[in-house]
Amino acid sequence: MRKNFTQFGKIPGGFTKREGKPADKAILVSRAIDRPIRPLFPKDFRNDVCVIATVLSVEPDNSPEVAAMIGTSAALAISDIPFNGPTAAVNVGYVDGEIVINPTLEQRAKSDLVLTVAGTLEKVTMIEAGANEIPEATMLEAIKKGHAEIIKICKFISDIQKEIGKPKFEYKSFEVDHDLYEEIEKNYQERMYQDVQATDKEVRDSNIDKLTEDITAYITEKYGEEFVEERKQEIGEIIYKLEKKCVRKMIYEEHKRPDGRAIDEIRPLSCEVGVLPRVHGSAIFTRGQTQVMSVATLGMLSEAQSLDGLDEETTKRYMHQYNFPPYSVGEARTSRGPGRREIGHGALAEKALVPVLPSEEEFPYAIRVVSEVLSSNGSTSQGSICGSTLALMDAGVPIKAPVAGISTGLVTDPEDPSKYIMLTDIQGIEDFFGDMDFKVGGTKKRNNCYTS
Asked: Mind listing the domains of the chain with CATH numbers?
């Protein structure tokens, strides 16, 4: 999403007085636009698609973010780009005990819920919410009412598409060769089924690497080196597809998970505080093979972050930042600063913790927490919520209640999507091959944050 201060009647801050790279808020909006539309492109479609949402004018009572999400869907719907939309979005608030669709600026200021819902005519596809510990029943009602409005907008976009939409262009399909897939499945499915059941991630990855070598050798011997060289990417996708089928079958039919846990079982937990001697607060939180170190720093209120965006928010007293270095997943590559994913995960943890922070009157400090992922096997953003709670308490911040986060997953029946298995505390492989990654952060009493 591209911001434009001119049409908002503002002069950009800083020395250059010109719009520069997108601010964190614009990056978060770009992620919100991307998440609902990405699954709606055909699975075998590989063409690059770029959508730029340029804000030309802003009325504070009407969210430019929601307008950009709807505009993106409409643009894709009427274009010749293959797209299985439309999709739409709304903001939902909870003001004075009432659910409000697309609340005004005044209503947003006193709302106990900041919820963005996106979806299609049939289903909700994305939820992003921050809340002041509202009941789960209220959250569910807000999502349902939001989707009812989404259906109306989707129908409106469909009418526009029927009137002026272009025919969708034909594209080169990158669907894998079914005959080759069935041949590999017939010869290697049983071994794949066993290999993915290794409880240790490194052992499992090693098993798949060795299996990939053996499958490649088999194809080379039967079809020749030239065949393998020409179809190297397709062979990789066949192996990925077979692994996905085995993992999903194991979870759905046998209720077995790759690391041997029960469906609702959480990985082993451990934590330690005060690990760094010269900082205000620090903690290491470990869940399975995911480990996050969070460090809290306190400063004067004058050190709060100044914001130069399109909305009315000008400062931010609590800053949460998340870093995902390459070594956390055993990769050797240059670190080039935070990307969209890191900024999004930092904002997610920030949203979960803001409701429990003391007011400026109670605790007149600016607060910055940095979460460093030391080792990753899924749910690192939720690990950063847990580690940050510990770091804040270690720094002496009088939070109202501890906050924890966890990711839940979903595996549906391939024949009937209404039948499914829910997974508690998903690891990396369950995230990659599952149908949903639903992150929930909250206190013992209520949940503060939802993202899917």
From this structure: 6-164 (3.30.230.70), 178-254 (1.10.10), 269-451 (3.30.230.70)
